Structures are given as C-alpha cells and as structure tokens.
Amino acid sequence: MRVLLLNPPHIAIGSRIPLEQLPPLGLLSIGGPLIDAGHDVELLDAEVGPLTHDDVIKRVVAHRPQVLMIGHSGSTSAHTIVAELTRRIREKLRNVIIVYGGVFPTYHFREVMQAEPQLDVIVRGEGEATALRLLDALENDEDLKAVDGITFRRADGIVVENNPAEMIRDLDAFRVGWELIDPSRYGYYGGKRAVVMQFSRGCPHHCNYCGQRGFWARWRHRDPQKFAAEIAWLHRVHGVELINLADENPTVNKALWRAFCEAMIAENVPVSIIGSTRTGDIVRDADILHLYRQAGIERFLLGIENTDEATLAKIKKGCDTTTDREAIRLLHRHGIISLATWVADFEEVTDRDFVRVLRQLISYDADQITTMFVTPHRWTAFYRQAQSRRVIQLDQRLWDYKHQVLESRRMPPWRVYLWVKLVELIVQTRPRALWRTFFNPDRAMSHGMRWYTRMGRRVWFHEMRNFLFNDRRVTNGPTLRQFWGAPQDRHEVPVRIVRARDQRSKSAQSWLSRVKHDLTSSS
Ligand code: B12
Ligand code: SF4
Predict the structure, then answer these.
(1) Cβ 123 under 6 angstroms from ligand 1
(2) Is-above-0.85 flag for pTM?
(3) In this predicted model, what pLDDT tens digit does every residue of 14-30 receive, in sequence order?
(4) How far is CA 507 from the centre of its chain?
(5) Ligand lying nearest the CA atom of residue 304
(6) Which CATH class for the 2-166 domain?
(7) Which of 138, 361, 404, 478 is most solvent-facing, going by the fewest CB within 10 Å?
(8) Does domain 182-484 have CATH number 3.20.20.70?
(9) CA distance 304 to 323
(10) How far is CA 97 from CA 68, 108, 119, 120, 477, in A?
(11) Spatial contact of 232 and 273, defined as CB atoms under 8 Å apart
C-alpha cells in the first residue's frame, strides 16, 4: 500500500529552540517493518523546517497516500496539532485511511475517536507488529476486528475496540527504517549529525508520575553487540556522530550494559552518546564508569525530580538524596556530564521551600540543571492523587513539562514561575558551572557545557516572553478530573504480556492444529 508517515510540527521548546532536529524514531520503527513487508512507505517530517500547517496539507495532498500514519513522540502536547491537521487532511482527501498512534492516543482513544471523526484507526501500544497486521488486513480487505491492538471506526461509523496486542518480546525482530531519512538533514548537541535509538524499552521502577513505564509494560533490551554494530554502521555509512538514547532506563542490567559498552569500545567509532538513567544505577556501576566514557557516553540526564526525602518517598522514586549526590559526583569524576532534573508542584510549595531547594541544588553540584512542572498523565497513579487539584492551563499544547498546569494553592502562578526560573538561573550561573563551561580542559565536556549554555540562554528568554505575553492561564479552572476524566492507572499497561511458557504452548498448539489440518486434508 502507499503509506505516508507524518511527523507533525510541534511548538514546544524541544522542537523549536535547538534549530536542529532529531529524526522521529517512533515513525521510523513503524516504517522499517512496513517496507520489508513490501509497502511503499515515505516519511514527511514537518518538524524539519518546520513546515507550516498549510505546507503539510499541500504535501500530503500531493502525495495522495492510501494510508496516512501520524504520531509524535511528545504525544500529549502534540495531540491538538494532530487533531487539527487530520481534520484538514480529511477535507481534502475523502478516501485516505488515517491511522494515529503513540502514547497519548493509546490511553485517550475513546475520547479521541469520539471527538475526531476524521480518524479511522488508533493503534494502542507499541506499533511495529500491530501496524504490520493492520496494513496486511487493509490490503487484503479483511475484517479489522481480527487485528489486536487497534480501535477502529467501521463503515457505519460505529467505533470498535479490539483486544490489546501482545507485547513484543524480541526487540531485534524489527528494524528501524533508516532509509526513510536523509541523515544529513538531522543534527543535535551543537552541530553533530544525530539520530535517536533505543537499546531497551520500559523500566522496572515505580515512580508514580511516570508516563512511560506502563506503556512499554516490561523492561526489554536489544542484543548489546547487534546494537553497538548498528551504531557503528550508522557512523561508517551515514556519518552519524551522536546517538540520543530514547531509553527510559538503559542501564537496568549491569552485565548487559557492560557488554554494550565493551562492544562499543571494540567497534572503535568516534560516536558520542547521550541519554537518561537512574542515579542508583550509576552508583551501582561505580567500578565500570570508565567503560561508559570509553564507549562514548558523554552526558546522562538524571531524573532526580526532587531534593526532599518525603516527596521522593511520596512519588515512589525509589532513590534517596545521598545516592543522587553520589551519582553526580561519580559521573563528574569520570568526565560524564550530569544533567539533573527538578520538578515543581509535586507538593504545594512555599517561598521557604524554594530557598531550601536552591541551596540543595547548588550543593548537589550537577553540571547542568533543568526545572520542570509536574504534568499529570491520566494513566499514572499520580493523576489519581492529584485529580481534585485545579487546572490553570487549558491549552493542551502547553502540557509539555515546561508550563505550570496545576494550581498551587499557596502561591500564584507568577510567583511559582519566578522562583522556578530563578532557581534555574542561579544554579546554572554559579561559579563552578561557569568554570566548567568556559575553562573545561575536557573537550567533550566543554562542548556539552557550551552547547547547553547557549541553548539555556535562548530557552530562558523564550519562556519568560511567553509567560509574560503569550500564555494564558485561568483562575478557578476545572479540576483535573473534570478536565481529563477519571483516572486510568488500573489500565496503565496497554498490551498483553504473554509468558514465554504460554507462547511455547501456543505455538505447540498451532503446530498441532496445522498437523491435524494437513492430515485431514491429505486423507
Ligand atoms: C528523544 C526524545 C526527545 C527528542 C525528540 C526526538 C524526536 N524527533 O522524536 C527531543 C529532545 C527533541 C524531545 C523534545 C520533546 N520532548 Co521528548 N523525549 C524523547 C524520548 C527520550 C524518546 C522518544 C522516543 O523516540 N521514543 C521511542 C519511540 C520508539 O517510541 P514512540 O515515539 O512512543 O513510538 C512507539 C509507539 O508510541 C508507537 N507509535 C508512535 N507514533 C506512532 C504513529 C503510528 C501511526 C503508529 C501506528 C504507532 C505509533 O509505535 C512506536 C514504536 O513502538 C522520550 C522519553 C522516552 N523514553 O520515550 C521523551 C518524551 C517523548 N518527550 C517528552 C516531552 C514532553 C518532550 C517535549 C514536549 C519537551 C518540551 N517541552 O520541549 C518536546 C516535544 C518535541 C519532540 N520533538 O518530541 C515526553 C512526552 C510525554 C507525553 N506523554 O506527551 C517524553 C515521553 C519524556 C517523558 N519523560 O515523559 N524529546
Ligand atoms: S525511573 Fe524514570 S522511567 Fe523508570 S519509572 Fe521512574 S521516571 Fe519512569
């Protein structure tokens, strides 16, 4: 079938401020298996440019796809943009089959199918296997009821919700469609040719606000040697210099991560790797951190989130402040930049809290810091806790972690905002951070620090301007539950997990039924 993958243009700082773009791994992961199955697949990445909505419509119409597949990694805040674009595409292309996928539609599929009649199918959960089955059914004009993992609209308009799909057990069974992009159009981290890759999916921890862990159901990983070989191939054949790891938590298993680092060292390619991980894993790996750096790891974002033990316990972070500090110290000793996150609004904060946070963050001494606002996802336990808090931001495009969305009863938004920005400014301009930025003898660290400083300056003024002149907030807004509906944390896992034993017995059963069938048809 003629398929167009569409990455819509986002307005978030992550999309607009760096002036360089990373390729959309989610869509490329769908595209690879579809190409192998013989479909004619192309990608329209409207983030590059970015394209205006008018341009997107023109190009989609000119392409005349049979199937349009749309989704964005910043799925919650991108939803309004997806809705608007697909409405306009439907006006121009009556017969195109519009398929929407990603994290946000996976959980909000009922409301989305009701509100957006232009959509034909929503793929729930990870997309590789489901998209393949879906396209196969569409091509052969089969009943979509047989395709697990989708919700679809029948010809008579009735919306049908199929069973969940099975979780993919072997991540190496599907390949990324690298041929869909021209790598020279993509870059990150200050002019390095860059791609996003995934060594693993999921996370075994239980942070109650996390919008990702349940989506992937279980922690799974790729073969470390094959993964390192793919990175080396991307470097040698396509000149890729930077890998942005999409993993929630790549270091879960020490032996596997060590095997990956050793495989990367053996490949001997000058590739820089940045990603996110947990402080506990860094402390656990104190004896192999030199391998991290030799393998190319240059920066890790550490989801510290808070500096208060009681809050860390309440959000089930499973870490403590001593481990967080130690991880930062260890990374620094091994020449790896630490980017610490701090999230406002888990609790009702006061001026005194902010003063304490500021002092603590300075003493943590992370190389880089980013502050965010808690952004509740309906499928998390935190949403249940916060459901009666009032919403102050009704524009869903701004539910992107960088805008305050929940009311703080003890402080007006402007004061929360000033504090958050002040904390960021003071921590990032403390003498040690400046020294590490401008006089760092380590070239890789110096590059990363300078890039972040340039980016930070632009983000800071951009956000200030938006806060003062563009973003609108409401007082006395709806509660979270009124705004987005009842909690869904009991359905946090959108796929079926089939144990290896069950799978074996299932394949034995299907083998048995094939044998029976062959015997009866030959007799
Ligand atoms: C890399 C990354 C970035 C890169 C973007 C790279 C890119 N071009 O995609 C940068 C640094 C620019 C970035 C920016 C932002 N990001 Co970001 N980012 C990530 C990260 C680390 C990986 C995303 C990824 O590639 N995942 C792997 C792919 C394979 O998964 P996937 O996209 O979900 O796709 C699978 C399924 O969802 C499904 N699917 C997806 N789309 C479709 C479409 C169809 C048709 C089908 C059938 C299936 C399907 O199938 C895919 C394969 O199984 C995630 C965290 C994480 N661990 O996932 C955060 C994350 C996606 N980012 C997030 C946010 C908030 C942002 C920003 C809004 C931040 C900001 N204020 O600027 C911006 C948005 C702009 C953007 N481009 O995404 C949040 C989104 C939360 C949410 N539910 O909305 C995440 C999950 C981080 C988090 N901890 O919560 N980000
Ligand atoms: S460690 Fe990170 S990915 Fe894992 S549950 Fe916590 S927030 Fe989510």
Answers:
(1) yes
(2) yes
(3) 999 998 999 999 999 99
(4) 33
(5) 2
(6) alpha beta
(7) 478
(8) no
(9) 10
(10) 6, 20, 8, 6, 37
(11) no
